[in-house]
Structure formats: structure tokens, C-alpha cells
Amino acid sequence: MVTDAQVRRLREKRMEGKSLAAAAAAAGMSERTARTWQTGALPSTMRSPRPWRTRPDPFADVWATEVVPWLEADRDGRLQALTLFEELCTRHPGQFRPGQLRTWQRRVRDWRALHGPEQEVYFEQAAVPGREGALDFTDPTDLGITIQQQPFEHVWFEWILPFSGWTHIDLAPSETFEALVQGLQSAVWTLGGVPAVARHDNLSAATHELKRSGGRQLTARFQAVLDHYGMRSSRIFPGHAHENGSAEQSHHQSKRAVAQGLLLRGHADFTDEDTYLSFVREVIERKQNAPAASRLAEERRHLRPLPSAPIPNYTTYTCVVRRWSTIRVSGRTYSVPSRLIGHTVEVRQAPATIEVRYSGELVETMPRVRGRDHRIDYRHVIRSLVRKPGAFARYRYREELFPTLPFRQAYDALLVWHGDRADVEYVRLLHLAASGSEGAVAQTLTSLLADRRPFDYHVVQHLVAPATPRHPMLRLPEPDLTVYDTLLAGGRS
Question: What is the C-alpha to C-alpha distance for residues 179 and 434, in angstroms, rounded to an integer?
């Protein structure tokens, strides 16, 4: 039987000037057959549909009586063909075989195409230049990014212009309001203009749930950001991610492009976050933005001008430092230097950091808490704790006073060797680390633990900071040189 591909091959060779014999040989047919198919319709268009079955229908006995009622009752089309087949095999043991599954699936598919429920229609939208910028967060965990061989937990903020396809990516520790503002401002200031509409889903960083209606509304903070840039919000219905299809499709394309870039690079480890972000943006610029340059130039003419200046990428709080030397920010507890107890401080919460200021001066910068509800720096409380070592045993945040694994192991060893006095010895060790080098103390503890030698605070202190020997100061009287002159003159002293 001659195929369409053979006939196309024959005709291509004839158009190249080949003889009939040579063209027939290239197409894999005889010269007599080739003469028949030099012109005319393709073989597939000349075959009549087969009106008969070539084998008995294995589902004839159950289709009308059992299967069709199942399919008619499934008004939403959610019942899978595999589920139906497994149920059929359970009801009729030995009558059906696993090899018939594909035939069954085609049979169910065809019935639904002819008699099944109506499906949801998606309406392709025409993008308007300068009208809309779509934004969303996405999780790039599958890329396996590490910073100095340590897993890097983060999300991407992605902004895309649906008309031109221009894409901008920023990094964030998590989907917070501050990360949303930072990403949005980074995008529009890099772009050099502002679209009329910000298209987004109902992310909690920008919206809040209405108690009465159960719907969602913009938060006052995010509305203020949009007002600053003269944009209005356009949100999708909850659970309908396809309504923000530009962002969803961009996530897929961006991750795929970066994944391919990492394969060419040979590894996914970076020295720091800035190097990683530069790599991501270079890939996006080359793979997605460069091909969109002409459409972006057209779209830029329709963008609105930027305001005179961006707004801060942080949220400001005012806190009173409690007697525990802690403050509460966004439902999380942070320790601060004890000298601030009782004072009112200004806290600036950025996407990745917390800044503590007193009277306008920066006092402390610390990482923003993620995945837990507190962060206690032992250096803030150790001087009081060393005077009250008994408080260590039941301190609410005691686990925060083990800065690294060697300190935890050292405390367990002190419990074995010194019993009830272990708390006192450990608190002194922690004070030693706060006063000098935490790394030096940790290295010394690791060495002592490896040797399995009992130790206490004094042993560690001697090894970390040995006492400088003190030499006595000798005070000799000034010599009388006249005695020496008399001796030279031959006289007596």
C-alpha cells in the first residue's frame, strides 16, 4: 500500500528534475506505481471510511446497560475512564484484560465528544499595548539553586507585559507585601513607564478576605501603592488561575529558559544572591526580552510616565522594647540590645531584613524571620544571663541560645560531666563567645568533644584566649659614673 509520504517524496524528486525511475527508487516504489501517482490526490484522501469492525466489540454486553448510565450521570465529566474500567473489571472478573484499556479509553472519549456534557470555553484575549502588566509570584524550587552549596529558599516575583512579552524577575524570600512592592517597583523603574492596569491573582500580600461576603478586596496598603503609580487593579476570580494566563505561561517559559541555562553552565551553585539574580536576568533578557524588543518599543509609547520617586520598599512599625529585651513585629518576636529596654524604637521591615532604629539612628539589622515565630540573638541577653544562670534551664527561647551544633553538643557533654552545674558552665562559654570570637569557641569545643576529654569554662577559656604572662617591672637605680672615673684614675672608691 502506497503512503502519502511516499507520494510526496516521489513528487519532490520529480520537481527536482529526477527521472521517473530515480524518483520511484527514492520513494520506495516501482516505476509502474510511480507513473500512477505522479499527479492527483494523495492516497489517504481516496480511501473510503471502513463501515465495519475488524474484531468483535469486547464491551458490547455492558456498554448500553452499565457504562452509558455512568457517563450520563457524570454531568461534569470528572469521572476518569481508568476508574470506570477498574470498576468494570471488579464487577465482571475475568471478562476484561489490562490490554483493552486503550480501546476502552478511546471508546469513552468518543462517546463524550458526541454525547457528553458541554465543556468550559476559554476566550483568547487581544493584548493592547501599554494597557496591562501581569504580576505574580512563583516557586523555582525545582531548579535546585544553592548559594555556596547551601539550599537557597526563595520565590520569584515575575512581571510581564502581555502585549510585548517583556519580562522582569526579582528575588524574594517569600510572598510578602514588602516583596510585592519591591518587585513591582523594580519592574516599572527598569521598564521606564507604567501600564494602566496591574493584573494579579488574590495573593494575600495584596488582598484580604471579606468576612461577610467571603470575597477578597485590596488592602489599603497595596491600594496606596497602585494610587502612587496611577494604576488600577484587575484581579482574577479565586481558583481560576487561567484568568492570569500571561503570568502563568511566563512562569513556565522563564523556568524552562533558566533551567536550560543552568544545564549549559554545568551547575546551579552561586557565590551569592546578586550573582544568581544577574544570571537569571541575563537569561531572561536574551531568551525572552531580546525577541520582544520591537514590540516593546511600540508598547513604550503607550506607557504612562513614572512618578517623581519610588516609595519605600519597607513597612514601618513603632515598638516599645519589652523587659525581655524583645519586640513584636508582624506577629513575630525579635531580640534587641538590652540597653533599649523600655524605649520606643522604629522598626523597618523589608522583604529580607529588619532594621531597628532609635532616634533616627540605626541600632541593629537582622534577617527577617521565616517559617517560625521568633529570632533571639544570644548576644543581646547573655550579659544578664551570665549573672542569672539559673534562668537558662526554663528560658522560653532556650533553643535559640545554641548558635551552632558544637554548642548544643557541648551542653549535652557538660550535663554528663558536671550535672546541675552544666547550666553555669555553658552560660559562661556563651558569654566567652559573645565577648570574643564565636568561631574560635566553636572550633575549640569541636576539638575537645572529638578527644572526649572532660572540660569546663576555664579549660575552654585557656585554649581560646590564653592569659598573657606578666613580667615583673625591675626598677634599677641610675649608676654613679664618678666611681668608674675614679677607678680609671687609679684611685679608690
Answer: 33
